[in-house]
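Researcher: Next entry in the queue.
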Amino acid sequence: MLRVGLTGGLGSGKSTAARLFAAHGAHVLEADAIARQMMEPGQAVYSAVVAHFGDGVVLPDGRLDRGALARIAFAEGRVEELNAIVHPAVIARQVELAKEIFARDAGAVVMVESALIFETKHGGAQGRRWRSRFDRVILVTAPEEVRVARFVARAAPQGSLSAERREELEVEARRRMAQQIPDEQKSALCDYVLTNGGALTELEWQVDQLWPILKAAGAAG
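Model: Structure for this entry, 221 residues:
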């Protein structure tokens, strides 16, 4: 078995890399997807978020207003308050899911896709506790301008943006990136680094080369 952490900053393309690894046979656990499930009405994490941040983060239909929550977390500098509620539960769920997969397939490669493997203070960077969660860590990198452009493109997939709105999104992208550890520091902590500033085929080639190495490590235990 092999526990792999797949990380990368905003707009790096780690989700694309995760899909490529999944196509090879990796069992990918998306931290964001797990968090979204836990933040649905009726879930304990949802209740804790509402209790902490108030009814202003709740939409009329009872779901969380993710836009309002993001503004509070990032623009008002309260992201660690949110992380303290969400991260411990998400990490615990990742561990549970990985155990279930390994029980079915002892040689499996379980890959956790998460932007904040090193940044989180909950089972994370402090005291290098992240090393107790993963046997290998992969970093996906891309130049800052490419990452910002990808963020803007995701926010406006049709490409119809005013200059003012584009500038707002670029500022927001850089604000979020400033909350994350620079790639230069992360790369020193990782076992493998994938560069994703060019064509998709370049990333595909790197994943194709790395997958047999990971699979062999998983088989070897």
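Model: The chain has a mean pLDDT of 91.
Researcher: Noted, moving on.
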